[in-house]
Amino acid sequence: MASTIDLPEASGETTFSLELTQDQKDVRDWVHGFARDVVRPAASEWDEREETPWPIIQEAAKIGLYGFEGLAQFFADPTGLGLPIVNEELFWGDAGIGMAIMGSGLAAAGIFANGTGEQIGEWIPQCFGTADDPKIAAFCVSEPNAGSDVSALRTRAKYDEATDTWVLNGQKAWATNGGIANVHVIVASVDPELGSRGQASFVIPPNTPGLEMGTKLRKHGLRASHTADVFLDDCRIPGSCLLGGREKLDERLARAREGRKSRGQAAMATFEASRPTVGAQALGIARAAYEYALDYARERVQFGKPIIENQAIAFALADMKMEIDAARLLVWRASWMGRNQKPFRNAEGSMSKLKAGEVAVWVTERAIQILGGNGYTREFPVERMHRDAKIYTIFEGTSEIQRLVIARAISGMQIR
């Protein structure tokens, strides 16, 4: 694995190092072992089945890799590198299974970013269940006509003061774990006239009437991860399920109506926290493809010598390695900034996700080219890795949206 960043605290100041702590090394090696011994051997099977790999989720829960305690441990790393390290190693094993294991974390991030301390303590553990009875969670924001344009959400949440309940109606699309989750986190509009500033996040408790799964999607990649539409039909939830609480929402809506600045809207608060981790997932895919292509090039003999002795192949591998390491530095910088509450003045979170996602697509394509005809078949894993990589230029903000965010940040202009 490439050089890593450790930013321990010393006398209240953050110092810079390229050396992992022993705890970080131990976590990295532990997750890598699980990815190598449990995830990777099962990758092809679950990709073909296109089903949630419950046996592997259960194995991850038993060893503490899947669950609230593990997530809290990874997040507690003061350098911010805990989650990126874990995600890179797990997705090095397989991205589809990795997403099945880590997909619940997005819902947890939504609760953490928007909820009160009491709500965080109540709902995040329910996103994961227990080691003996693991559960999954779903974060639902996108809609059929509102993907990159989050301000166009049509799902509505209306407050019934007489019963202190919220009633939600609408349709969510492309939801990881949608419809089969124990806990759903829904972003809905409470004041459509305010656009994205009139949105809020809600927790839908298990078995709530009015929430149903729609079509399960058959995807190009990440096939072991369940993705489906979610329908909300007069879905009634307690007032306490509004993340952040009614008082905080009313204050935010009042500021928006008066034209004053308010805290970032509900969906973006979650994306800002999750983008570097998503970038780390893409890094895992890219690194897996690069390592496989490197080993193949050393062993494959053509014209009497290993193909890595040809400059075209060797230079391609050199570029792959360089791009992966460059993307990792962006991911870790953004992760450190987020953990240490540094402002993202130049959209460093978007930079990290953009770079890592595009590197993953480029590296996996190069890996297929190095393997030639073998790379195009399902007998070799780089074909699957390439399919899995593509989504990282699309979900949680397309590459075009990331560039828009970055351009606005560096220019100070409302570029459209």
Per CATH, what is the topology of the largest domain? Butyryl-CoA Dehydrogenase, subunit A, domain 3
Q: For the record, what CATH class of the largest domain applies?
A: Mainly Alpha
> How would you sum up the major sheet?
4 strands, antiparallel
Second CATH tier, the architecture of the largest domain: Up-down Bundle
Percent helix, as a range, is 40-55%
Beta-strand content:
5-15%
Q: Can you say what the CATH homologous superfamily of the largest domain is?
A: Butyryl-CoA Dehydrogenase, subunit A, domain 3
Query: Residue-averaged pLDDT, rounded?
Result: 92
Gross morphology is: globular
| Rg | 22 Å
Extract low-pLDDT stretches: 1-11
Name the strands of the widest sheet in spatial order. Answer: 4-5-9-8
Structural class: alpha+beta
Ends apart, CA distance between termini: 39 Å
